[in-house]
Amino acid sequence: MHLRHQIVALAIVPLIVAILTITAFITWQSTTLVESSIDTFEKNMLKAKENELLNLTNLALSAINEVYAKAGPDDEAAKEEVKAILKGLDYGQDGYFFVYDYDGNNLVHPRQDFRPGRNWLGLVDPDGDRVIANLIAKAKEGGGLHQYKWEKPSSGELADKLSFAAGLGKWKWMIGTGVYLDDVFAQTEAAKADLRENIRMTFLVVTLIAVPAVLLVFATCMLVTLRERRMADNKLKQLTQRIIDTQEEERARLARELHDGISQNLVGVRYAIDLASRQVKNRSEDASKAIDVGVEALNGAIKEVRRLSHELRPRVLDDLGLTPALKALSENFTERTGIEVDMEASWRDMLRPEASTALYRIAQEALNNIERHSEASRVEIRLWSERTRVRMTIADNGNGFAEEEVKEGRGGLGLRNMQERMAHFGGLLLVKSGPEGTRLTAMLPKSANHEPERRSEAA
């Protein structure tokens, strides 16, 4: 796999983990909130059951109060009358009142006829709770609530039951009633089941949305990367071809210069030397004149070699800097073409050598284009810096060209070379052309400047 694809994959994995983590956190937070609400709902329902038991117990005590208040500790008739009243106070299928004496003997139980007359003090429920003993203890304390497991009359199954026990101290009786809590627990359990199902569905929906979305992003990134890679490969091929074309063009130019210039001058030198040699042998008075002609031709060849050397790599650029090199380039251009060049430089040389070379080559290529195509009579070159960013403008009054060709990448080889030189340093090359002429602006970033000298700290 390509390194860039690996980087994209490594970026996608944390994204998936982050999405799942956030989803899990939101799910946990929602679960906690809903469970808290369910617990509150359960507590409220239990509180309502407690109030119901208190009301029922007070109702029963009010029903027997008149008889109980007038009776003595051993008034059997009153006791029987109270038992009868309590047996008749049952409510619903599972609502009734029960009575035990403090010794654990059952006196009243409307739903279970086998309990009256027997002692149940040692009765223990499946959880190990001593039910009757604890209810009697609550009654002796002045009354209280107690939860335990008891057989539900309507179904015959064991269920959680909450009872309130009150004491009739004069007779040493415990009177109580209770409500079954299975409906409360069933409602809360159903709510919790719904919560779990909702959370599962939410997590599933988020996963089904997030994971394909991330995979889609990954696939899109892969496609974009593949497309960019193809474009980069095409640009690289085009660049390679342009480099080859540039090399061939430069070689052809040098070949023409050598053949038409230096070679012709050297041939002239050879003829002059041959003529001088014959005249010397013949002791002719014109020998010195022929030698002078040869020397002049040789000087022309030397000048031509210097000119070509200057065009390939001007020494003044290395020795004196960009501004003198541009001035020399402008003067040679004017001398060769007759086109006036007005140059203005208001800056402090701060560029790295390779950046200076890039600007010099851009100016050189621009002047060549002006000479070949623009039919201009005047050129302006301005070099300045703006907030430590170097700028160079080259403008002419020639006939211009269509800017669309540059924007669409169909410009000449020279313009593309200039743009690539600027792009190498992260700079820009702006071209504006019209009937009034062409203006070319090269802009370099701060990164093209010399690195500031590091001053060593004093020890």
Summarize the structure in short.
With 459 residues, the chain is an alpha+beta fold. Helix content is 60%, strand content 16%. The chain crosses the membrane at residues 7-28, 201-226.
Written description of the protein model:
- This protein has 2 domains: about 1-185, PAS domain (Beta-Lactamase, 2-Layer Sandwich); about 315-450, Heat Shock Protein 90 (2-Layer Sandwich).
- It has 10 helices and 10 strands.
- The chain has helices at about 5-70, 75-85, 130-140, 180-280, 285-310, 315-320, 320-335, 355-375, 405, 415-425; strands at about 95-100, 105-110, 145-150, 160-170, 175-180, 340-345, 380-385, 390-395, 430-435, 435-445.
- The strands form 2 sheets. A 5-stranded antiparallel β-sheet has the order 2-1-5-4-3. The protein has a 5-stranded mixed β-sheet with strand order 6-7-8-10-9.
- A hairpin with a 2-residue loop joins strand 9 (about 430-435) and strand 10.
- Helix 1 (about 5-70) packs antiparallel against helix 2 (about 75-85), helix 1 (about 5-70) runs antiparallel to helix 4 and helix 7 packs parallel to helix 8.
- Residues about 455-459 have low confidence and may be disordered.
- It is found in: Cell membrane.
